[in-house]
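Troubleshooting log. The previous structure file for this entry was overwritten by mistake, so regenerating from the original sequence record. Sequence copied from the archived sheet and checked twice against the printout by T.R.
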Amino acid sequence: MPIPLRQTIRVGAYVVAQHIKGVRRYPLVLMLEPLFRCNLACAGCGKIDYPDAILNQRLSVDECVAAAEECGAPMVVIAGGEPLLHREIDEITRRMIAKKKFVYLCTNALLLEKKLALFEPSPFFAWTVHLDGDRDDHDHSVCQSGVYDRAVAAIKAAKARGFRVNINATLFATADPERIAHFLDDVTDIGIDGITVSPGYAYERAPDQEHFLNRRRTKELFREIFKRDQRRRWSFNQSSLFLDFLAGNQTYHCTPWGNPTRNYFGWQRPCYLLGEGYAKTFKELMEETDWDAYGTGNYEKCADCMVHSGYEATAVMDSVKNPLKAAAVALRGVRTEGEMAHEIPLDRQRPAEYVFSRHVEDAVARLKGRDEPAKSVSRAG
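Regenerated output below.
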């Protein structure tokens, strides 16, 4: 079972409780980025293109735990950058688990075998290894050969030690459905516990801006992929309605507050994918962000987005409100033929504003003013 029953019950109860209390906007998953530094330089990544002064910064253990407490989401995804570069990542993870948070630790797996002994299997913990396709596709995506084989070896080592291991596959415009289907068969045979899939999103800071998917192409791609799983072998670590959405069968609006992001700059507005300002507190993020200014149909930058960090929370909330609909999709599988659900019109969206560098400039200026470069470097993992 890709999503453990304990997690399904806890998260479902949490969502129901929010509805009973009349809470309109609430977090489902905390996206925690304790650092931006990485040991890869992927062409489609928008998280590592920062000055060294920023890349050398780390959130402390206490800052990470405080973010989880402040946010209150039942799940925590620890991302980056490469989290295993953080010298205290094991302590961060233990503290989260001690608070009964369901923790997914994302990694490119280059350091996974070396770091495995620092962690213990737990029903509240899973590794999420990034694999963007088969050996050729993944190594091309991460701009380095041999990474796929090292990741697969690390997955097998983690499974041998009793850990739950998922993969996260981000697909771009060059993805071939037949090859992706074979890839998903291969990782299933390895024995992974769950699969997360998502279309790539056009980060402003990513070096490669040419190979991101538009919404129509996303739907066509996932229909072609899903129809190749006739025996229903693939176990997705995602809601059935989100997968149905990827195939063009649901019209969903983004809920960016469902996956709030905390990193070195603060609480990121409006979401994990766009950095257009930061709040000092989670309360400020929720109460002072103009949420209606973002999302497909509202903002040009969001026009093509169908990423899980924006829409999985929408699908989960829909699943709780309409369990029979979700169950029907789970039982019959995602529909891959026929007319697609209507698309959100874009005629009233506001034009893009390019403001992403301001917070970087301000942070670098503050660091220079504090004159702490030696201290920052010493904290690097």
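The two ends are 34 Å apart (CA to CA). Archived copy saved in two places this time.
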